[in-house]
Amino acid sequence: MIPLKSKEGIARMRESCAIAATVLHELKQCVRPGISTYDLDQMAREAITRLGARSACHGYQIGSRRYPAYSCLSVNEEVVHGIGSLRRILREGDIISLDVVIEYRGYIGDNATTVPLLPVPPRVAELLQVTEAALQIGIRQAQCGRRIGDISSAIQTYVEDHGFSVVRDMVGHGVGTAMHEEPQIPNFVDRKRSRTDEIRPGMTLAIEPMVNLGGYKTKTLSDGWTTVTADGSPSAHFEHTVLTTEHGPEILTVPPAARA
Ligand code: MF3
Ligand code: CO
Fold first, then answer.
1. Domain range for 238
2. Ligand 1 centroid from CA 236, angstroms
């Protein structure tokens, strides 16, 4: 069952998503050549604490492993779940995906962006533009009466029309009192999930295309978390938490300062 949020739940989601967006916005301003991904993670930790929230990544458990950092920082060929490291110093020409998931008063906000350290090669700049546009195209499909699969198919078509590939091993997801709720939201049409759920008012969905410049395959490094492209090509990741309403999708992960 896909949880539908009550009025109260939606109000809480607005708060948690505003905080997640504020942290992401602040973190983005800190990206520059010479900084380590460890320092960026500490800045995420500080911002999350200052805003009265808690990192939903830190201590997040899969099997017997607990995620050790406060944000996910994934450089170049790293797709997701990169762990900040003092040895990873950002340089011109890198791209870095910043993924911030926070919990505030029992509700989760989840968002991500990918930032270039300019200059980057033209095809890498295009990878970022296409992935961000694919997120917007996916969000536009999040209309009541349509299906989750409409989001998947719109994203996949747009990405592949531009000659890039969509990661299969990780998917978007419902989000609420847990980081991962139903439904799964693949960024590709999945034959196993061909009949997908209908979108109804009150769903909160984390839509998050992960797009590779080369092939779609990925592997996980020996740290048990960092996912990288199998062919070493760069990868981009953009994510918003979106509320579905009768009047269409509403992006919740917008920093308060950027609201109209
Ligand atoms: N946004 C990521 C996800 O939905 C955050 C994962 S937190 C981690 O999977 F702890 F698993 F890294
Ligand atoms: Co997510």
1. 7-251
2. 15
